[in-house]
Amino acid sequence: MKKECQKNFEKISEYLDGELGHDECRQIEQHLNDCPECQGCVDALKKTIDLCRKSAQDKIPEDTRKRLRSKLRDCFNKD
Ligand SMILES: [Zn+2]
């Protein structure tokens, strides 16, 4: 995993714990545009970003959080 990707992975994890603001969401999104490796995880990442945008109104359901987290882990752990 590249350093930049690692950073994003950590941020997404924080986000899933409800600790991430909109600026960080945008950073993740921007990284996604520039990084083919993370684009490989695009499904999970995109869902995360979508949730990010909605998070002002809605809490993330627990099962969605679990699913995204394990998906991201699978994704970022394979090389
Ligand atoms: Zn990346």
Write structural notes for this entry.
The chain is mainly alpha-helical. It has one domain. The protein contains five helices and no strands. It is globular, with a radius of gyration of 11 Å. The model has no long low-confidence stretch (mean pLDDT 81).
Features:
79 residues, mainly alpha, 76% helix, globular
Note the main sheet.
Answer: none
Order of helices and strands: HHHHH
User: Into how many domains do the coordinates divide?
Assistant: 1
Span of the ends, CA to CA: 7 Å
Oligomer: single chain
Number of helices: 5
* Global Rg: 11 Å
Number of DSSP E strands:
0
Low-pLDDT segments, ≥5 res: none
Strand content: under 5%
DSSP helix fraction: over 70%
Structural class by secondary-structure content: mainly alpha
> What form results from the Cα inertia axes?
globular
Bound molecules: zinc ion
- The overall average pLDDT, rounded, is 81
Write a short abstract of this structure.
With 79 residues, this protein is mostly helical.
